[in-house]
Design goal:
By secondary structure, this protein is of the alpha+beta class. Among the domains are: 27 residues, no CATH class; 68 residues, FAD/NAD(P)-binding domain. Helix content is 15%, strand content 23%. It has two helices and eight strands; from the N terminus they run βββαβββαββ. Strands 1-2-3 form a three-stranded antiparallel β-sheet, with no helix packed on it. Strands 4-5-6 form a three-stranded mixed β-sheet, with no helix packed on it. Strands 7-8 form a two-stranded antiparallel ribbon. Strand 2 and strand 3 form a beta hairpin. The chain is elongated, with a radius of gyration of 20 Å. It starts with a strand and ends in a 12-residue tail after the last strand. The protein binds flavin-adenine dinucleotide.
Length: 137
């Protein structure tokens, strides 16, 4: 990726095969990997994140996990999932903290993500399949 040779407002991407693509800007979609070393060292089950139940409990009754790093059963999606969103980190943590204190209320939120991208507020509720129908309002 480099500055465009003739246009200061553009960039030029050069691909492995030598072809180039000029663009106004580039978005780096890097992703993340859950940091599970501590849980692995503790002997807790890890499989795309720390495996927990509806209360954030791992297979070691003394250890709980929540947020980005936790792979939990989603009552809504009907499968295990590891979510990377602010709302999940907060609300799963509330369920885990309650369970630690002896109040067992399963974490069963519908996955919800929001973000502000410049002047656009983006909200995603549920699970968006690849073939979802797009409606622009
Ligand atoms: C660039 C970016 C943009 C994002 N934008 C949005 C958005 O618009 N909307 C949204 O909903 N979500 C967004 N997210 C996701 C959101 O930030 C995360 O889902 C949320 O912060 C997860 O919270 P968490 O507490 O689970 O993990 P984290 O916030 O990652 O906190 C984990 C903490 O644990 C610490 N830690 C790790 N290992 C150890 C260890 N061994 N010992 C001690 N401490 C340790 C880490 O240093 C870190 O401070 C964004 C994330 C990124 C990176």
């Amino acid at each position: 990726l480099e500055d465009h040779p003739n246009d200061a407002n553009r960039i030029r991407a050069t691909f492995a095969d030598g072809s180039t693509l000029d663009a106004d800007f580039a978005v780096a979609g890097i992703g993340l990997a859950p940091h599970t070393a501590l849980a692995e060292a503790a002997g807790v089950k890890v499989e795309d994140g720390i495996v927990v139940d509806h209360f954030g409990a791992t297979d070691d009754p003394r250890i709980f996990a929540c947020g980005d790093v936790a792979n939990h059963p989603s009552a809504w999606l009907k499968r295990r999932v590891r979510l990377e969103s602010w709302a999940n980190a907060q609300n799963q943590a509330i369920a885990a903290a309650k369970a630690l204190l002896g109040t067992f209320e399963p974490y069963a939120d519908i996955p919800w993500f929001w973000s502000d991208q410049y002047d656009v507020n983006l909200q995603i509720l549920g699970d968006i399949p690849a073939d979802a129908q797009l409606a622009v309002r």
